[in-house]
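To the wet lab folks,

You asked to see what we're planning to order before we commit. Fair enough. Below is the target structure as tokens, and below that is the sequence we designed to fit it. If anything looks off to you, flag it before the synthesis order goes out.
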């Protein structure tokens, strides 16, 4: 197996917009969780088998391990070492892209960052979200803008040469001027990779309640679309390649992959595996895996709650919550919906290798219609979203279901 996701479901406190599977004030359970997680990883290592249907594009990706959350940087270096050691039985660390998400409020200075780097983490993803302190407070973030600036500088000093920053637009109180100030500042940092997300108001979150009660206002759809468009032009002008709807990487070594054109060297290979609809294992509370090898292609998820996850592993059982069978039709639709998120779109060879059928035979009528609507276009051997289609991505994706 080439790709592995590991979920660390702990956060110091819960951000007001977050609906991820993560828990605040449970740090007393981190050690027991790490023991259970390592046991699950060892169990998964026994089930590993090579993924079939790998296209040349998927085969060109680095092996990857992605520590997401939650806040993986709440783990001590010793705990991180044990997790990575167990993970390496599935995906060997040599030549792998090993990413860890992090919260600037939990990065414990240069020594911690140096230790992380020495353990083999070679890509750090920092959730900065905003460089405006009043907005960070509304979001319930545990760091200030200055702390994010300092954490970024410390990560560089600690030797991280592949850093991603996450930002959100369409935030409470955010206007175009404030957003452009943020964009202007980010590009001066020379960061390797940026992920930009439009705020999604999730029901059951405090921010949703505040907005629907009229206590907090957020920019309307037009203003949010303008922010997205301005981000695309800012990053293009600063020599970043937008290689996916929400993701930008520094241009300096575009075209590294001969099989996957125009993907910059600092693109996130773990996420590329998702967008190429590749197989991946996952471990940890609430983690999702995707396996199409063997006789029963399926997606699986692990038990959500920390205590139940630990208890199940303690009893020696695999902590599965759900297994969802995947049909050939699911695979075709997902290969299109995920692949069209990439700016290079879906390669006909990739589709044929992944799905065993020609793209034109399966989706010819949909492609013809979407081209006539100006939402997708053909390039040699590929189909991709047009700039207009990128603004209406969900509408396009639904046509392949
Ligand atoms: S730090 Fe991230 S995972 Fe944790 S509560 Fe905030 S948004 Fe959610």
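Sequence we intend to order:
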């Amino acid at each position: 197996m080439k790709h592995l996701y590991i979920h660390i479901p702990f956060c110091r406190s819960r951000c007001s917009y977050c609906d991820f599977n993560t828990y605040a004030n449970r740090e007393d359970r981190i050690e027991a969780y790490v023991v259970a997680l390592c046991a699950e990883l060892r169990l998964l290592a026994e089930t590993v088998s090579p993924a079939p249907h790998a296209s040349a594009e998927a085969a060109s990706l680095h092996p990857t391990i992605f520590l997401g959350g939650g806040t993986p940087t709440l783990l001590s270096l010793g705990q991180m070492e044990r997790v990575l050691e167990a993970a390496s039985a599935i995906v060997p660390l040599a030549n792998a892209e090993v990413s860890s998400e992090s919260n600037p409020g939990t990065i414990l200075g240069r020594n911690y960052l140096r230790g992380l780097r020495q353990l083999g983490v070679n890509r750090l993803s920092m959730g900065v979200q905003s460089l405006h302190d009043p907005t960070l407070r509304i979001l319930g973030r545990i760091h200030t803008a200055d702390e994010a600036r300092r954490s970024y500088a410390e990560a560089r000093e600690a030797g991280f040469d592949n850093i991603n920053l996450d930002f959100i637009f369409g935030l409470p109180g955010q206007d175009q001027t404030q957003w452009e100030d943020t964009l202007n500042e980010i590009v001066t940092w020379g960061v390797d990779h940026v992920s930009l997300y439009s705020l999604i108001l999730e029901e059951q979150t405090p921010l949703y309640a505040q907005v629907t009660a009229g206590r907090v206002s957020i920019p309307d759809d037009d203003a949010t679309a303008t922010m997205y468009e301005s981000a695309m032009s800012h990053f293009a002008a600063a020599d970043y390649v937008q290689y996916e709807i929400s993701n930008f990487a520094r241009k300096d070594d575009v075209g590294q992959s001969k099989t996957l054109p125009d993907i910059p060297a600092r693109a996130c290979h773990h996420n590329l595996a998702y967008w190429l609809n590749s197989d991946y294992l996952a471990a940890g509370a609430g983690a999702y895996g995707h396996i199409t090898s063997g006789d029963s292609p399926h997606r699986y998820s692990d038990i959500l709650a920390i205590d139940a996850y630990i208890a199940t592993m303690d009893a020696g059982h695999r902590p599965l919550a759900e297994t969802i069978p995947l049909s050939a039709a699911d695979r075709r639709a997902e290969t299109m919906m995920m692949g069209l998120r990439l700016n290079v779109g879906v390669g006909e060879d990739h589709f044929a290798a992944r799905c065993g059928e020609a793209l034109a035979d399966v989706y010819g009528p949909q492609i013809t219609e979407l081209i006539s609507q100006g939402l997708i276009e053909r390039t040699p051997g590929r189909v991709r979203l047009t700039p207009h289609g990128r603004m209406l991505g969900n509408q396009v994706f639904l046509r392949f279901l």
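Structural context that might help your review: Residues 221-237 form the longest helix (17 residues). The chain has two domains: 3-275, 328-398.

Thanks,
Computational group
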